[in-house]
Fold this protein.
Amino acid sequence: MYKAEYIWIDGAEPTAKLRSKTKIIEDGVEPGIWGFDGSSTNQAAGESSDCVLKPVRITPDPIRGGDNKLVLCEVLLITMKPHPTNTRAALAAAAKKYAKHEMWFGIEQEYTFFDGIKPLGWPDNGFPAPQFGYYCGVGADEIFGREIVEAHSDACMAAGLKIAGTNAEVMPAQWEFQIGPNDPLECSDHMWLARWLLYRIAEDFDVSATLNPKPIPGDWNGAGCHTNFSTKAMRESYPPIEAACKALGEKVELHVKNYGDGIERRLTGRHETAPYNKFSWGVSNRAASIRIPWQVAVDKKGYAEDRRPNANMDPYVVTRLITETVCADAEKRGIK
Ligand code: ADP
Ligand code: MN
Ligand code: MN
Ligand code: MN
């Protein structure tokens, strides 16, 4: 027998949370459909509380090891139709519709470790030294939680997730990991599994990880989820990259209001952000909404970075919106 950890996304508002529970399964049997009490997750009323868990991506469980598994699920109604909180189903449809554009995503997840009510390693009273030496820093005076970060990236690798790297961030106790590049569904599934592993591993250190986009008000960086993207055409030449930036500039409100709760607290125009209600794009510009990396401008092909999504964004929603906006525009311009 082995343990399968069924993981799903709940109906918490304004930001959904991860949930999981364990099923013991006979050897040789694959994890199948299961259920849960939706009245405890803001996904159903008490009178008809059953929701369905449908496995969509199964990986080895790096925490329990052995034959144990992680089972990422979609939530369905008992009619087997997607639950209203299931944002993955709409992404699956958009990814299929625009599959010929071969969209890739690479997402940079920023997050902050907390020890009780304060960021990990911060003094009980007052604040640490102002931001400067922490980004990609080294040393016990500047780095808090590296052992958790190492355990997390090892776990992601052992689970077969496409983790691309990690770094310490500008605010002390803030960190980043990247997933990608991979197709929209795989990138988003891997991101949700990597988030679950982050919370689960930090739990063993008595530390909580938060995706709060602005955990400390004032002169401290917020936490984002820069979303790098490319179509096949963008990976081959430069004009489609500029066209994608312009297309995103025509749908600013639709995107920003779906890029994570509290985006106006983070996208202030300070701390390496552009104001949430002002769209801009440019080469190397970390104060723009969309940045074209310097190397991409030199190579005249590659990808662009949407810097607006919050740390607490839903990757199923963000990758769907970018796929729809960029690919619909490409088709309008006659790129099939
Ligand atoms: P930054 O300089 O913004 O901190 P990072 O190195 O943290 O950049 O993240 C860049 C991300 O871009 C990585 O996740 C990487 O996988 C992704 N990426 C690289 N090439 C592409 C591409 N062609 N399409 C989409 N994403 C890409
Ligand atoms: Mn980065
Ligand atoms: Mn970063
Ligand atoms: Mn970035």
